[in-house]
Amino acid sequence: MTPARPAGADPRRAPTTEPGATAEPGEVLDCRGQRCPLPVIALARRLPDLPVGAVLRVLADDPAAAVDIPAWCRMRGQEFVTAVEGPGYDVRRIH
Length: 95
Prior knowledge:
InterPro entries: TusA-like (IPR001455), TusA-like_sf (IPR036868). The chain is of the alpha+beta class and 95 residues long. It is 22% helix and 21% strand. It contains 2 helices and 4 strands; from the N terminus they run βαβαββ. It has a 4-stranded mixed beta sheet with strand order 1-2-4-3, covered by helices on one side. It starts with 26 loop residues before the first strand and ends with a strand.
């Protein structure tokens, strides 16, 4: 029996790592000094340029980013990996 996959998921573009696995960010998006929703908009524009499985660190010092970035990941089906000091947020591109 083949495991189910999300509608529209292309198995040829599967993530290079398992969801939940930790990884160092390949790129950093510096949104410090910007107020939400600008960091989320920048994330939405930058993430599609990265390969599936890549981790992007978003640096954002607006307190709303702590809620907005994980919420955006849930709504868009991307993986919120972790919040890091700096303040930063690691997001893995899933699709």
